[in-house]
Amino acid sequence: MAVTERDKTIVVIGTGYVGLPAALMLAKAGYQVVGVDINENIVRAINEGVMHIREDELQRLMDEPEVRANLRAQSTPCEGDVFIIAVPTPLDDRKKVADLSYVDDAVESILPYLRPGNLVIIESTIPPLTCRERITPMIEEATGLKVGETIYLAHCPERILPGDIFYEIVHNDRIIGGINEITREKAAEVYASFVKGELYRTDDVTAELVKLMENTYRDVNIALANEFNAVAETLGIDGREAIRLANRHPRVNILMPGIGVGGHCIPIDPWFIKEVDPANSRLIFTSRLINDEMPHKIAAKIRRAVRDATAPKIVALGAAYKPNTEDTRESPALEIVELLREDGYDVAHYDPLVDGMGYPSLVEICRGADMLAILVPHDEIVAELERDRERIEQAMRTPIIRRYQ
């Protein structure tokens, strides 16, 4: 869908996993796009046409002449028609609440450039009421503009999947949240320029909660799978087989257990719900505790597996937070390895998809090892293990091979 006003400028604050794909799609749609990032290396890479996110489809998009002509990057904001904020919202680990400092900084950075008629879109995941009770006062007090009347504020949460960002950002349905109808329509116009999924208009608070509900749903169901698996182990049966059989019921779809929950969303967003309503989020809180303790349980299983070995040498495979991506944010695999090393175990850690963690072959890195722990089963890891398992076992001192998800 072509942009009707090709002279419109969209300023995207934050050019990471969320902001850069959005900037590319908007540039492809014909907008003039300015990507803003405090990391000078990222700014330089974008201006040179180099992706710092490893995804082939996005690189091909970056290489298109029209995109290169419409997209530039810089370290500070500038005037524009639309401002999209796509910065991280990490968790304050001590208080278990949202750390909104990046969002605050991003909003403050654009305040000098806001003009009547501008649209500000928050894509960052935020607790409910953040737009109304935090961002709106910041804008109105600094600019004298009235949100919903002379300036417009919307929450349109991102919906992407690392490893398949290009498809997801185009084809996923999007939630368009705004305080009034004119805000929603202005925001919907932006996303209609490249989104092929449905655009669902709602108010800003509903949009804020919907995003958290999506990731919390996954977290709670992963916790249920992990609990089922723990009960099966207590009974001495195969939990995965029990889950597969239970899923033969037409209305049952239990997930498979794993080593914990990672990524920037699922292990963090449920805490934002508990932050705003602890009395009504007891199941959510319990699920977070279950999934957070999984790396400790997996580390304990690995310790038990090598308890008979003298000075055991462990090879751990996989550092990303899920299979077939290089993204290590909040990765439970990293925590498992750290726990083992803190206990004094000799752990060599590899991941073929993560920069600096590659290896020549499984046979080579497993030579003299007592255990091969597959924490993240990337397809290429599984394929190599299936192909060379006999040689790998022969190379090991104690051929213990375990897959944990």
Would you kindly provide a written description of the structure presented here, covering whatever features stand out?
With 405 residues, the protein is an alpha/beta fold. It folds into three domains: 9-202, 3-Layer(aba) Sandwich (Rossmann fold), CATH 3.40.50.720; 212-292, N-(1-d-carboxylethyl)-l-norvaline Dehydrogenase, domain 2; 294-403, NAD(P)-binding Rossmann-like Domain (Rossmann fold), CATH 3.40.50.720. It is built from 16 helices and 14 strands. The strands form three sheets. Strands 3-2-1-4-7-8-9-10 form an eight-stranded mixed sheet, sandwiched between helices. α9 packs across α10, α9 (204-235) packs across α11 (269-276) and α11 packs antiparallel against α12. It is globular, with a radius of gyration of 24 Å. The chain starts with 8 loop residues before the first strand and ends with a strand. The model has no long low-confidence stretch (mean pLDDT 95).
